[in-house]
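Box S2. Input/output pair 1.
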Amino acid sequence: MEMRQIEYFLAIADHGGVAAAARALDTARPTLSQSIRALERELGAPLFFRMGGGLTLTAAGRALLGPSRRLMRNMSNWPDVLAPNSGDLGGHLDIAVFPALADSVVDLIARFYTRHPRVELRLTDMHDDHPRATDVVRNGAVDAVVMHLPVVDDALAVLPLGEQEFVAIYPSEVDLPPGPVDLTSLPDLPMVLVPETHTLSRQVGTTLRSRGSRPRVATLTEHREALVPLVAAGVGGAIVDRSTAETALGLVVLRPIEPPVLRRFGLVYDEARLTPAAEAFLALARDGKGKEGCHT
């Protein structure tokens, strides 16, 4: 098995086909196809099967995915592995972030870049409430995930970073009394909501129903980024994180919620597979919060 074969395998897995992978790598399609066939013969199992117009991983391909990603990441970081005390850290750091939490880690990322400018930091968006969010850590796709807590995965470690506050927002022309909005007696306005497949929506919905409150629904959307524009356009009210709401002040009216709606968030990672860059990132996060990581 050669490193180039692993690179080709990952490119096809990431791009869903040979043609797209060849374009991404600027390599001829026959070269990729022949290399993958040779790898499959060596392993004694097919790695892909054709589905529609693309390629999908087989069980053997899925089993190879995580080790291959870790191998490629370790290769890119090998100078730091060999000389971890050089003081001039390099390599790559891959972090997946849920969009709603991106603003919460901007300062941490900026401090890390200032301290380690040679590290190539790659941020990946996670879909809200991905059912298997920790899989991207387990399969080696990223070094850590910034996500809401708790996490039910005893094999991974967690470094709590803080709490995210959620607030109510309404169109700017709505005349609201000052002070917090009671979650169980919201103003008589329709709401722009996301489905209860999202954990925050379930949390809010459960609280409302437990107290006999059922707000009118103006719009149900899967796209959290559409909440503020819809509210600003006068469609109805919504519940969003405070940092998002504060960027739209003037377009919307913001009110705290009673009882408060808070969600803990943190970094989720695999202690056994940390690269030097990932270790430095976690150390900086611990220094900033004054907290030690803990297992779930």
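Box S3. Input/output pair 2.
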Amino acid sequence: MPPANVCGTPSPIIVWQFVDGKPGHEKQSTGLLQGLEALHPIEVYDIDVRFKGMLWRQIRRRLGNETPDFASPDLLIGVGHATHLPLLIARRVCGGRSVVLMKPTLPYGLFDLLFVPQHDRVRRRANVVATRGVICPSVAADKEPGSGLILLGGTSAHFEWSNPDIGKHIEAIVRASPDVRWQVCDSRRTPDGIRGCIRSAPNLTFRHWQTAPADFLEKTLPRTEYVWVSADSASMLYESLAAQARVGIIALRPKRRRGNKHAVSLEALIADGYVVSSNDGYRLTATAARPRFPPENHRCAKIMLDRLVGRED
């Protein structure tokens, strides 16, 4: 653990957060940092691996005994394959402990700690922690009664997508809960033409991702009572669960039955009662009380703090 400063308050844990420009990846590491900050003060420096000069400047200054721009890291955290090699180079030169989220392509032994979703079925290793789905921020707020979101993904490697079929699902959801104010939100992956497949209704609003405010979901999701998510959108599914909404999955046909890890993880969530499937009906408001989904970011942050911070090489 970093020592306390002269005033007796804990010195912050210095974190280098490696990002690759993909919002879904950055949201995962941000979720982990949210959990860590709840346990201990942190100071975070972002290193965007798309701009190589940002990292090489830090390395050159240390190798040349110059004053670096960033404080030396206690933790180096990365999500996405593009962050892994720069993270390892920085660890070698600048010190700190390496943490990656998601299954890496590089040898696992190169990293100090890995958080890998259970559905990736990774062999047990001392430095691997299995997570239930992806790590994400957990922000829950007082719910606005009668508020609802329908979050759409799009084409993926794991599920078939049909705009007309999605339109039918949305119509059934809206019809089943006419007292809920539904907002449909598409995404970058949603195929063109989806708006024309959604029938208008008095309690339905469509929000296109290009015209909605950048922070729309970040502000709206924690206050939303009911959320439907298309089966391909794993990150939005776990964010909705972490926000403690009542969550339904818009069922899509898997592209393959065997070896479809995402379909298997959805089935487990349904079996445990955390979510319902559109195959079983469209009225979330009629479902019985469900178990509270435990956000993974706080659990994983505690593991990271206990195992890595303050340990010597």
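Caption for Box S3: The first strand starts at residue 13 and ends at 19. The mean pLDDT is 90.
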